[in-house]
Amino acid sequence: MINKLVEKIKKTGAPIVVGLDPMLNYIPQHVLDKAYAEYGETLEGAAEAVWQFNKEIVDKTYDLIPAVKPQIAMYEQFGIPGLMAFKKTVDYCKSKDLVIIGDVKRGDIGSTSAAYATAHLGKIKVGSKEYTPFGEDFATVNPYLGSDGVNPFVDVCKEEKKGLFILVKTSNPSSGEFQDRIIDGRPLYEWVGEKVAEWGADCMGDEYSYIGAVVGATYPEMGKVLREIMPKSYILVPGYGAQGGQGKDLVHFFNKDGLGAIVNSSRGIIAAYKQEAYAKFGPENFGDASRAAVEAMVADISGALAAAK
Ligand SMILES: O=C(O)c1cc(=O)[nH]c(=O)n1[C@@H]1O[C@H](COP(=O)(O)O)[C@@H](O)[C@H]1O
User: Fold this and answer.
1) CA distances (Å), 206 to each of 4, 5, 181, in order?
2) Which of 34, 82, 227, 263 is most buried, by the most CB atoms less than 10 A from its CB?
């Protein structure tokens, strides 16, 4: 799957991922009204609104982008109907040939990690039958339980040709509380980065490993160091847009080949119609606003990369 991701990034010229993180307050009223008219103001109604919202955004952007990243919490908050909307979104994106990064941030003791890996990247046997539970292509993984919490994910990736993005340095304001602590002379995130490079070394695709890392756009200096520590790992870079990251901050997350990083924006794309820059589209045309925001993001990042050459 890493080869497909790299190919699609080259083909679209867009090292970006659209984060499908739907909150009800991002969904235009006309979409909510229609869903509530059919299902009532229920969890089912909310899930229907989420699904219709996602579908429109995907329809308006899929030809420009290589990948999407649905964040499962945004669906879980609507219980079982929400999880069904998550699965419907994954399947629909797959039908559009997008690479799907399941942002599930899992990690546990080995046997439990194995079940999480099966759920999101693998297959499950029920009697004589086999099923694909959620069927994403990549999953985000929290490495804090150590190697035995990560290895079951790696094993499923090897079997299924899937991939991981392992949290190394997160974008949030408090990420330094633990991740920046100096241990044996180096910050913890560097130790985790080294481990990601090690886990990834025997998981190579054609050019890059299918064991990648997450490093926040909000910490560009740390991104530069981590790029060197993990030269063969793709870096998923969240924090663009709503959290303040801009193209010019991101240059060092990329390798000299112009590859190696994929930048996520969620609110900045899916709720673009609420921003002044895209207000002219209006809530009715929220999908067109998202498309314009994708185009602006690609131009910002490619411009920064070209200027740095
Ligand atoms: O793993 C992630 O995707 C992630 C890691 C991180 O360090 N920071 C971070 O913001 N994320 C996710 O990236 C998305 C960011 O959303 P926006 O700030 O709206 O673009 C959310 O889905 C977060 O859960």
Assistant:
1) 10, 11, 35
2) 263
